[in-house]
């Protein structure tokens, strides 16, 4: 989507539990699929005539969806920015070392062709862009595509992204990828584990009446870049026991004005840790920015950090729900 960050340093044990070892998983049916498979991707029926063998992915969440399903042996490589951070403590360390890092910029048709890709897995603003590379550009070159569901365009508006709740988007992609690559059982196990983790956090949040209001701060000083209803942070916040102050914004990642943040007065700010501006620098800005001085989260220094890979559609989302849920319960108990 944008620039990348260091991997999450919190809750890695939970990530390990949820995602397994990240090792290669054989096709569930034990035989090569000869028949075509049709799935619904971004509201359209898409048919894949054969099981992809040389997939190129763009960005961390998309790449780790493949790793979570044990599909690194089906990948020709991944594209990620240079600051993706250490993978030493991730369940996907072996997969990252096995799969080729093709570029530190963004996926292009030339990269896909050089890698002899038969499928590019990316999304709108997660590699695809009308002014740079579109799925049609790759289709004309004989390369299939799969779109990240979090990024799907809303047909009613034509520009905003998001067609379903973010965690449902994660489950939809796992199910589709399971069918495309013949690892349905693995996909269903992951979905079951993820749903169980989220349900447990939801149950704990329901024990208390208070639901802290939360503002997701991604970046920006003149205007903050944040999450509307259809980006992953919205549902991560909700399932963790909070309320996204911009839930009424029918878009995914977008920009708002600081006056909106001040007016809605969040109890907590969640900082997206990625890019050249560190989480510590973002926190320092928030605490020193005069228009925010009377905002509850700033007055009480309730600022919580999550990693970029936690906050875009990825296998890390359930763990992010779990960790944020623990923090929000502490805030609610202290109120």
Helix content: 25-40%
Please give the number of β-strands: 14
Give the structural class: alpha/beta
Outline the biggest β-sheet: 6 strands, parallel
Spans of at least 5 consecutive residues whose pLDDT stays below 50 are 1-23
Instruction: Please give the alpha-carbon distance between the first and last residues.
Output: 36 Å
- Shape summary: globular
Strand content: 15-25%
User: How are helices and strands ordered from N to C?
Assistant: HEEEHEHEHEEHEHHEEHEEHEHHEHH
C-alpha-based Rg, rounded: 20 Å
Count of runs of 4 or more consecutive helical residues: 13
**Average pLDDT level:** 88
Give a structural overview.
The protein is an alpha/beta fold. The strands form four sheets. Strands 3, 4, 5, 6, 7 and 8 form a six-stranded parallel beta sheet that branches. Strands 11-9-13-14 form a four-stranded parallel beta sheet, sandwiched between helices.
